[in-house]
Specification:
By secondary structure, this protein is mainly alpha-helical. The protein is 58% helix and 0% strand. The chain is built from ten helices and no strands. Helix 2 packs across helix 3. The longest helix has 15 residues.
Length: 196
Amino acid sequence: SQSDISTVIDYLQKSKCNKSVLFKIEWRYMPVFDDSVEPIAIQNDISKNPKTLKEIVDFAFSKEKALSMNSYRLLFDHWKTVPCQKKDGHVDGKKLNKWLSDVKNNFDDKKRLDFVYRRIGGVFYYSNPDKSGLWIDRNIAEIMNNNNYARIVNLEKKVLNLDDKYSVSSLIAIGYHEQNLSAPQRVDVNEFLIIK
């Protein structure tokens, strides 16, 4: 049953199971993952290895339905591991800049690069608060407000139909705020701006 498979995967994740074997098991059983069990090995790998992320994104564009669905499930339902996150939960800014550069260099197709940038912007939402008390890790805030990653910013603005005065870090804050609202409310974006 689905519950039994989830239990076995959870056990393997907590054991010292070989990470590449666990990756394959998680990929094979992607449809069984829910809120109780997440594909941890895959999330960790794509958050460290841009080549693996490229493979997963390529699968999303596959004509093989099962392969494409697994990729979409992973990228949209389960990927929450922030790239280059250290053991203390904060992001290594230098490694994240390198990781983003490697991601960009791996994608020749603009459509796929835009696709992955949208997902990366979504994953940044799961960043821990900065040590200084800022609601998001400062390394992510600086990257999101950096002109080198304007495509991430512009894609987020286009989807949310917002004008240029908003930074992506403010858009992530809006998403964070809306996720935690008990009822629909208007949000004053200006209170979330990091760099105005």
